[in-house]
Model the fold of this input.
Amino acid sequence: MFKAYDDVRRNLQRRPNAAHYRRRRRLGAQQMLKAGVPIYYRSEDYPETMSGVLFVKEYPNGAKFIIRKELIDDLRLLKEQVRLLNAI
Done:
């Protein structure tokens, strides 16, 4: 019984923390942009994107837009540009 408890405790101590996951997400986003693929994310810099259907869409050339992503009745994804965040 104690061995199982020690194994669980050891695994919990080895688990990566939140900073580790943030670094991995940032590296993944950089790789996507480098490959020419736009990325979608939420940002505290734009509070309206922190919940709901609004997201930041960033293109590899640096252009950023706030877009609305919603599922419509026939379950297709509707993406609509709301506003430009920065001019390139």
Summary: The chain has a mean pLDDT of 81. The chain has one domain: 2-86.
